[in-house]
Amino acid sequence: MFRLERGVTGFRSAKEPELPEVPVRTFRRGCYEAARAAGGAVEQLLGSAYPRSFHSAVVVTSNDQLAILCNAMYPLIAFAEVGTGDLEPKAFVHPPTWAAKFSEIGFVVISRQVLDSPLGAVDTAALGKAEWMQIDSWRPASVGGTVFNSWD
Q: Could you tell me the superkingdom of the organism this chain comes from (predicted)?
């Protein structure tokens, strides 16, 4: 069963320890390696910024254009259709074959099935009280909407 770790939403209470961080340079490295494997190019790359809980990039290949999302706290990767100019995903998609490059350097590539699942389908025991307050407020429809959010 897929497990959501404490802080994956980007929220914590003041009494909880600081959240881990995935450096944007680590994500950048993965994007460039994956783009090379795909015969494509990284077109845009943005580090997480309030209120987004994720870094994002767009990789363009000869026959496709995909958004890559990376949770800013944990090395979790998702793929999505390219959305608006601020890289908000339209819909999660199955990881392409070249997503394996992310796994090779320590990222966890999340399947579309898990991303589209309701929270009840994954282990949420590690989530903190502050996270549950946000979840109760925003009511995300899926695991993907919880892990890759723009809540403020």
A: Bacteria
